[in-house]
């Protein structure tokens, strides 16, 4: 397995240098779009879908649009090697599906702030697996940025009124499963991006995740809700593509040119983006701790970009 990771994770040459410089920007774009996900999620839930159906509608909508787009523009991007199906199962079922399912379960069992903090244990998992499978260097710079971003996430979401439900251990394990599932995309996606275009990786991720999510979402009930709210579905589809499919495309593109551990830390800006969207759109307020948390996350991103020449020499060695 380890050799497979190393073979497929090598980026292509040519546009490699400018894309290495732009890769953090792509991750940042993905995190901002993910941060806006709450907007469309609230919209979809208000239609009458339950938690599992909301996830299924969003994932399936994005999958259908991506399939149609590739059928019209470039059908060759729908071709994959059968032996790589295991990696796509990793991104689709192991990551996107498990992440959504476990996160929804955590939200139901505990407070939203606890769920978010457990979700953002993902960079810890990514860093460990990146060292094992990709031989990435575990630097002081990365460790400092990781802990700073995690502390920032805790401060941004706030844990003053947090609760973990009746069975804290089970809630903790489910929440960590969400974080672990989230982290798997940075690992399996890195493998696949050494061989496929970002659209190919994203579309098969969503196809597999949509199949799994529909199986547990009472599709007949979903169909009735969709039929009775047809006028609201265009916004649902467009919103799902913008806040779910597009950020995965951006993130997948970046994974070809940036270390997985760095990408996962930069992606923690999603928490900041979500908070800022809440302030602008829903008139939510930020206290001093929230503001300090935002500063911590931004500081972590700055730390990751320090001394880029040395970082690049290390990566090429």
TrEMBL record:
Does the record's keyword annotation contain Transmembrane helix?
yes
The superkingdom of the source organism is: Bacteria
List cellular component terms (GO).
Answer: membrane
**Keyword terms:** Membrane, Transmembrane, Transmembrane helix
* Annotated transmembrane regions: 21-43, 55-73, 85-106, 112-134, 143-162, 168-189, 201-221, 233-251, 263-282, 288-306
**Domain called EamA: residue spans:** 25-157, 172-304
Which protein family is named in the record?
A: Belongs to the EamA transporter family.
Q: What is this protein called?
A: Membrane protein
Organism of origin is [Clostridium] hylemonae DSM 15053
């Amino acid at each position: 397995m380890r050799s497979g990771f190393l073979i497929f994770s090598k980026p292509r040459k040519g546009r490699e240098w400018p894309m290495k410089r732009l890769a953090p920007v792509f991750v940042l774009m993905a995190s901002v779009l993910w941060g806006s996900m709450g907007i469309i999620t609230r919209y979809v839930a208000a239609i009458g879908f339950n938690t599992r159906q909301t996830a299924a509608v969003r994932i399936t909508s994005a999958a259908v649009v991506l399939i149609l787009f590739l059928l019209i523009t470039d059908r060759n991007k729908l071709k994959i090697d059968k032996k790589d199906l295991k990696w796509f199962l990793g991104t689709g079922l192991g990551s996107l599906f498990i992440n959504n399912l476990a996160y929804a379960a955590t939200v139901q069992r505990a407070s939203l702030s606890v769920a978010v903090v457990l979700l953002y244990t993902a960079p810890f998992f990514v860093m460990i697996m990146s060292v094992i499978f990709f031989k990435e260097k575990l630097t002081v710079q990365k460790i400092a940025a990781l802990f700073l971003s995690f502390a920032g996430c805790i401060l941004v979401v706030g844990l003053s009124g947090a609760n973990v439900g009746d069975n804290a251990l089970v809630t903790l394990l489910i929440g960590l499963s969400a974080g672990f599932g989230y982290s798997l995309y940075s690992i399996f996606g890195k493998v696949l991006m050494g061989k496929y275009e970002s659209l190919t990786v994203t579309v098969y991720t969503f196809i597999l995740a949509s199949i799994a999510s529909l199986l547990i979402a009472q599709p007949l009930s979903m169909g009735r809700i969709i039929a009775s709210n047809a006028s609201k579905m265009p916004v649902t589809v467009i919103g799902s593509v913008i806040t779910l499919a597009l950020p995965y495309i951006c993130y997948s593109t970046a994974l070809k040119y940036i270390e997985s551990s760095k990408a996962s830390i930069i992606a923690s800006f999603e928490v900041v983006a979500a908070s800022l969207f809440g302030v602008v759109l829903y008139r939510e307020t930020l206290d001093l701790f929230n503001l300090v948390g935002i500063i911590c996350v931004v500081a972590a991103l700055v730390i990751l970009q320090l001394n880029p020449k040395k970082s690049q020499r290390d990566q090429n060695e």
